[in-house]
Amino acid sequence: MRIDAHHHLWTLARGDYGWLTSDLAPIYRDFHLTDLAPLLAKARIDGTILVQAAPTEAETIFLLDIAEAADAVRGVVGWVDFDAGDAARRIDALAARKLLVGLRPMVQDIADDDWLLKPELVPLLAAMATHGLVFDALVLPRHVPRLVQVVDRHPDLQFVLDHCAKPQLASGNIAAWKDDVALLAQRPNIVCKLSGLVTEAAPHWRFDDLREAVDHVVFCFGPTRLIWGSDWPVVNLAGGYERWLAAAETLLADLSADQKADVFGRNAARVYLGQRGRRVD
Predict the structure, then answer these.
(1) What is the widest separation between alpha-carbon atoms in the chain?
(2) 214-241: per-residue pLDDT in tens?
(3) Which residue in 35, 40, 34 sits closest to 4, CA to CA?
(4) 113 and 94 in contact (C-beta within 8 Å)?
Protein backbone atom coordinates (compact mmCIF):
# COMPACT_ATOMS: atom_id res chain seq x y z
CA MET A 1 0.00 0.00 0.00
CA ARG A 2 1.68 3.18 -1.21
CA ILE A 3 0.06 6.62 -1.25
CA ASP A 4 1.19 9.86 -2.83
CA ALA A 5 -0.30 12.17 -0.21
CA HIS A 6 0.09 15.45 -2.08
CA HIS A 7 -0.46 16.26 -5.72
CA HIS A 8 -2.41 18.77 -7.78
CA LEU A 9 -4.36 18.85 -11.01
CA TRP A 10 -5.39 21.99 -12.85
CA THR A 11 -6.94 23.41 -15.97
CA LEU A 12 -5.64 26.89 -16.71
CA ALA A 13 -8.84 28.03 -18.41
CA ARG A 14 -10.59 27.84 -15.03
CA GLY A 15 -8.85 31.14 -14.28
CA ASP A 16 -8.53 30.90 -10.50
CA TYR A 17 -4.83 30.03 -10.15
CA GLY A 18 -3.54 33.52 -9.47
CA TRP A 19 -0.06 32.33 -8.52
CA LEU A 20 0.38 30.25 -11.69
CA THR A 21 1.83 32.47 -14.40
CA SER A 22 3.84 31.98 -17.57
CA ASP A 23 6.99 32.70 -15.54
CA LEU A 24 6.60 29.14 -14.23
CA ALA A 25 6.97 27.69 -17.70
CA PRO A 26 7.47 23.99 -16.80
CA ILE A 27 4.08 23.87 -15.06
CA TYR A 28 2.16 26.53 -16.97
CA ARG A 29 -0.16 24.12 -18.76
CA ASP A 30 -3.02 21.82 -17.92
CA PHE A 31 -2.26 18.76 -15.82
CA HIS A 32 -4.64 15.80 -15.73
CA LEU A 33 -4.71 12.39 -14.11
CA THR A 34 -3.67 10.88 -17.43
CA ASP A 35 -0.39 12.81 -17.11
CA LEU A 36 0.17 11.48 -13.60
CA ALA A 37 -0.83 7.86 -14.19
CA PRO A 38 2.48 6.65 -15.72
CA LEU A 39 4.42 8.14 -12.81
CA LEU A 40 2.15 6.43 -10.28
CA ALA A 41 2.52 3.11 -12.06
CA LYS A 42 6.31 3.32 -12.16
CA ALA A 43 6.44 4.31 -8.49
CA ARG A 44 3.99 1.55 -7.53
CA ILE A 45 1.59 4.08 -5.98
CA ASP A 46 -1.82 2.61 -5.11
CA GLY A 47 -3.70 5.82 -4.35
CA THR A 48 -3.35 9.57 -4.00
CA ILE A 49 -4.53 12.59 -2.07
CA LEU A 50 -5.50 15.43 -4.41
CA VAL A 51 -4.82 18.88 -2.94
CA GLN A 52 -6.27 22.28 -3.81
CA ALA A 53 -4.16 24.81 -5.71
CA ALA A 54 -6.63 27.70 -5.98
CA PRO A 55 -8.33 29.69 -3.19
CA THR A 56 -11.84 29.02 -4.46
CA GLU A 57 -14.58 26.64 -3.46
CA ALA A 58 -15.31 26.17 -7.17
CA GLU A 59 -11.93 24.51 -7.58
CA THR A 60 -12.64 22.23 -4.64
CA ILE A 61 -15.86 21.09 -6.32
CA PHE A 62 -13.89 20.60 -9.56
CA LEU A 63 -11.40 18.37 -7.72
CA LEU A 64 -14.11 16.41 -5.92
CA ASP A 65 -15.82 15.70 -9.24
CA ILE A 66 -12.52 14.38 -10.62
CA ALA A 67 -11.93 12.26 -7.53
CA GLU A 68 -15.36 10.68 -7.59
CA ALA A 69 -14.72 9.44 -11.12
CA ALA A 70 -11.18 8.16 -10.45
CA ASP A 71 -10.39 5.20 -8.21
CA ALA A 72 -6.77 6.30 -7.86
CA VAL A 73 -7.77 9.44 -5.95
CA ARG A 74 -8.67 8.40 -2.43
CA GLY A 75 -9.41 11.83 -1.00
CA VAL A 76 -9.34 15.59 -1.64
CA VAL A 77 -7.93 18.36 0.52
CA GLY A 78 -9.96 21.38 -0.52
CA TRP A 79 -10.38 25.05 0.28
CA VAL A 80 -13.13 27.05 1.90
CA ASP A 81 -13.44 30.78 2.56
CA PHE A 82 -12.72 30.81 6.29
CA ASP A 83 -13.28 34.57 6.32
CA ALA A 84 -16.84 34.37 4.99
CA GLY A 85 -19.67 35.18 7.37
CA ASP A 86 -21.26 31.81 6.63
CA ALA A 87 -18.03 29.80 6.69
CA ALA A 88 -19.48 27.20 9.07
CA ARG A 89 -22.31 26.49 6.65
CA ARG A 90 -19.84 26.22 3.79
CA ILE A 91 -17.76 23.69 5.71
CA ASP A 92 -20.88 21.65 6.46
CA ALA A 93 -21.86 21.68 2.78
CA LEU A 94 -18.46 20.58 1.52
CA ALA A 95 -18.18 17.92 4.21
CA ALA A 96 -21.26 16.27 2.73
CA ARG A 97 -18.95 15.11 -0.07
CA LYS A 98 -17.40 11.93 1.30
CA LEU A 99 -14.12 12.27 -0.58
CA LEU A 100 -13.36 15.61 1.06
CA VAL A 101 -10.79 14.62 3.69
CA GLY A 102 -9.36 18.00 4.62
CA LEU A 103 -9.21 21.75 4.09
CA ARG A 104 -6.23 23.96 3.36
CA PRO A 105 -6.27 27.74 3.70
CA MET A 106 -3.31 29.11 1.73
CA VAL A 107 -1.72 30.71 4.80
CA GLN A 108 1.57 31.36 3.00
CA ASP A 109 -0.24 33.84 0.73
CA ILE A 110 -2.23 35.66 3.44
CA ALA A 111 -0.83 39.12 4.19
CA ASP A 112 -1.66 38.98 7.91
CA ASP A 113 0.93 36.74 9.59
CA ASP A 114 -1.39 36.46 12.60
CA TRP A 115 -4.35 35.22 10.55
CA LEU A 116 -4.10 31.77 12.12
CA LEU A 117 -4.73 33.31 15.54
CA LYS A 118 -8.04 34.99 14.62
CA PRO A 119 -10.67 34.06 17.23
CA GLU A 120 -13.22 33.67 14.42
CA LEU A 121 -11.37 30.54 13.31
CA VAL A 122 -11.97 28.69 16.58
CA PRO A 123 -15.54 27.48 15.89
CA LEU A 124 -14.63 26.72 12.26
CA LEU A 125 -11.75 24.46 13.20
CA ALA A 126 -14.01 22.82 15.79
CA ALA A 127 -16.50 22.14 12.99
CA MET A 128 -13.72 20.54 10.95
CA ALA A 129 -12.91 18.23 13.85
CA THR A 130 -16.58 17.27 14.16
CA HIS A 131 -16.65 16.30 10.49
CA GLY A 132 -13.38 14.35 10.74
CA LEU A 133 -11.59 16.74 8.38
CA VAL A 134 -7.84 17.33 8.46
CA PHE A 135 -6.34 20.84 8.58
CA ASP A 136 -3.48 21.02 6.07
CA ALA A 137 -1.17 23.84 7.17
CA LEU A 138 0.44 25.50 4.16
CA VAL A 139 2.77 27.74 6.12
CA LEU A 140 6.21 29.30 5.93
CA PRO A 141 8.81 29.09 8.72
CA ARG A 142 7.66 32.40 10.25
CA HIS A 143 4.16 30.99 10.76
CA VAL A 144 5.22 27.93 12.75
CA PRO A 145 5.15 29.61 16.22
CA ARG A 146 1.56 30.73 15.51
CA LEU A 147 0.69 27.24 14.31
CA VAL A 148 1.90 25.80 17.62
CA GLN A 149 -0.73 27.91 19.40
CA VAL A 150 -3.49 26.82 17.01
CA VAL A 151 -2.61 23.13 17.35
CA ASP A 152 -2.74 23.51 21.13
CA ARG A 153 -6.18 25.16 20.94
CA HIS A 154 -7.62 22.25 18.97
CA PRO A 155 -6.40 18.96 20.44
CA ASP A 156 -9.25 17.07 18.73
CA LEU A 157 -8.32 18.30 15.23
CA GLN A 158 -5.75 16.49 13.10
CA PHE A 159 -3.17 18.82 11.54
CA VAL A 160 -0.75 18.14 8.69
CA LEU A 161 2.32 20.35 8.25
CA ASP A 162 2.64 20.76 4.50
CA HIS A 163 6.08 20.70 2.88
CA CYS A 164 7.84 20.58 6.27
CA ALA A 165 6.93 24.32 6.56
CA LYS A 166 9.23 25.14 3.63
CA PRO A 167 12.65 25.50 5.25
CA GLN A 168 14.97 27.92 3.43
CA LEU A 169 17.30 25.26 2.11
CA ALA A 170 18.78 27.38 -0.67
CA SER A 171 20.18 29.90 1.82
CA GLY A 172 20.97 27.36 4.51
CA ASN A 173 19.19 29.58 7.04
CA ILE A 174 17.27 26.85 8.83
CA ALA A 175 18.35 27.10 12.49
CA ALA A 176 15.18 28.87 13.66
CA TRP A 177 13.07 26.54 11.50
CA LYS A 178 14.65 23.55 13.23
CA ASP A 179 13.88 24.94 16.69
CA ASP A 180 10.28 25.81 15.84
CA VAL A 181 9.56 22.51 14.10
CA ALA A 182 10.96 20.61 17.07
CA LEU A 183 8.55 22.48 19.34
CA LEU A 184 5.63 21.87 16.99
CA ALA A 185 6.40 18.16 16.78
CA GLN A 186 5.84 17.81 20.53
CA ARG A 187 2.11 18.15 19.82
CA PRO A 188 0.60 14.71 19.16
CA ASN A 189 -2.16 15.94 16.83
CA ILE A 190 0.13 17.06 14.00
CA VAL A 191 2.05 15.08 11.42
CA CYS A 192 4.57 16.31 8.87
CA LYS A 193 4.26 15.95 5.13
CA LEU A 194 7.60 15.10 3.57
CA SER A 195 7.11 17.06 0.37
CA GLY A 196 7.98 20.35 -1.25
CA LEU A 197 11.63 20.39 -0.16
CA VAL A 198 13.19 20.34 -3.61
CA THR A 199 11.55 23.60 -4.63
CA GLU A 200 13.10 25.22 -1.53
CA ALA A 201 16.58 23.94 -2.37
CA ALA A 202 19.13 25.57 -4.64
CA PRO A 203 18.98 24.84 -8.36
CA HIS A 204 20.74 21.61 -9.34
CA TRP A 205 20.29 20.30 -5.81
CA ARG A 206 21.83 17.05 -4.71
CA PHE A 207 20.35 14.50 -2.34
CA ASP A 208 22.69 15.61 0.45
CA ASP A 209 21.34 19.17 0.17
CA LEU A 210 18.09 17.83 1.63
CA ARG A 211 19.61 15.57 4.26
CA GLU A 212 19.71 17.95 7.23
CA ALA A 213 16.05 18.89 6.88
CA VAL A 214 14.91 15.31 6.27
CA ASP A 215 16.94 13.97 9.19
CA HIS A 216 15.46 16.69 11.41
CA VAL A 217 11.82 15.91 10.67
CA VAL A 218 12.50 12.18 11.01
CA PHE A 219 14.04 12.81 14.42
CA CYS A 220 11.29 15.20 15.57
CA PHE A 221 8.18 13.45 14.26
CA GLY A 222 9.38 9.87 13.93
CA PRO A 223 8.40 7.50 11.11
CA THR A 224 4.84 7.11 12.41
CA ARG A 225 4.12 10.83 11.91
CA LEU A 226 5.70 11.44 8.51
CA ILE A 227 3.76 11.29 5.24
CA TRP A 228 5.39 11.30 1.81
CA GLY A 229 3.96 13.39 -1.02
CA SER A 230 5.23 14.30 -4.47
CA ASP A 231 3.88 17.85 -4.79
CA TRP A 232 3.45 17.06 -8.49
CA PRO A 233 3.37 18.90 -10.84
CA VAL A 234 5.05 21.70 -8.84
CA VAL A 235 7.96 19.30 -8.32
CA ASN A 236 8.62 19.60 -12.06
CA LEU A 237 10.18 23.00 -11.29
CA ALA A 238 13.00 21.24 -9.42
CA GLY A 239 13.84 17.84 -10.85
CA GLY A 240 10.52 16.06 -11.21
CA TYR A 241 8.59 13.23 -9.61
CA GLU A 242 11.06 10.41 -10.06
CA ARG A 243 14.08 12.31 -8.79
CA TRP A 244 12.28 13.53 -5.66
CA LEU A 245 11.00 10.03 -4.94
CA ALA A 246 14.51 8.61 -5.38
CA ALA A 247 15.88 11.28 -3.03
CA ALA A 248 13.29 10.50 -0.37
CA GLU A 249 13.90 6.76 -0.61
CA THR A 250 17.67 7.29 -0.39
CA LEU A 251 17.46 9.69 2.56
CA LEU A 252 15.14 7.29 4.43
CA ALA A 253 17.20 4.21 3.61
CA ASP A 254 18.11 3.61 7.26
CA LEU A 255 14.48 3.12 8.27
CA SER A 256 13.16 -0.41 8.60
CA ALA A 257 10.88 -1.82 5.93
CA ASP A 258 7.95 -1.39 8.30
CA GLN A 259 8.84 2.25 8.99
CA LYS A 260 9.17 2.96 5.27
CA ALA A 261 5.74 1.44 4.73
CA ASP A 262 4.40 3.92 7.30
CA VAL A 263 5.96 6.96 5.62
CA PHE A 264 5.06 5.95 2.08
CA GLY A 265 1.47 4.92 2.70
CA ARG A 266 0.13 3.70 6.01
CA ASN A 267 0.37 7.04 7.79
CA ALA A 268 -1.49 8.82 5.01
CA ALA A 269 -4.20 6.16 5.07
CA ARG A 270 -4.60 6.57 8.82
CA VAL A 271 -4.55 10.38 8.88
CA TYR A 272 -6.57 11.17 5.76
CA LEU A 273 -8.72 8.11 5.20
CA GLY A 274 -9.37 6.86 8.72
CA GLN A 275 -12.79 8.51 8.90
CA ARG A 276 -13.46 9.63 5.33
CA GLY A 277 -12.39 9.05 1.74
CA ARG A 278 -11.94 5.83 -0.18
CA ARG A 279 -10.41 2.87 1.57
CA VAL A 280 -6.93 1.73 0.56
CA ASP A 281 -6.89 -2.05 0.64
Answers:
(1) 49
(2) 999 999 999 999 999 999 999 999 999 9
(3) 40
(4) no
Contact 63, 52 (CB under 8 A): yes
Q: Do residues 230 and 241 lie in contact, with contact meaning Cβ atoms separated by under 8 Å?
A: yes
Report the CATH fold assignment for 3-273: TIM Barrel (3.20.20)
DSSP 37-101: HHHHHHHT--EEEEE--SS-HHHHHHHHHHHHT-TTEEEEEE---TTSTTHHHHHHHHHTSTTEE
Q: What is the pLDDT of residue 211?
A: 98
Instruction: Report the C-alpha gap between 204 and 188 in whole angstroms.
Output: 36
Beta bridge partners of 192: 161, 226
Percent of the chain predicted with pLDDT > 90 = 97
Tens digits of residue pLDDT in 151-174: 999 999 999 999 999 999 999 999
Residue boundaries of the structural domains of the chain: 3-273
Say how many Å lie between the first and final Cα of the chain, rounded. 7
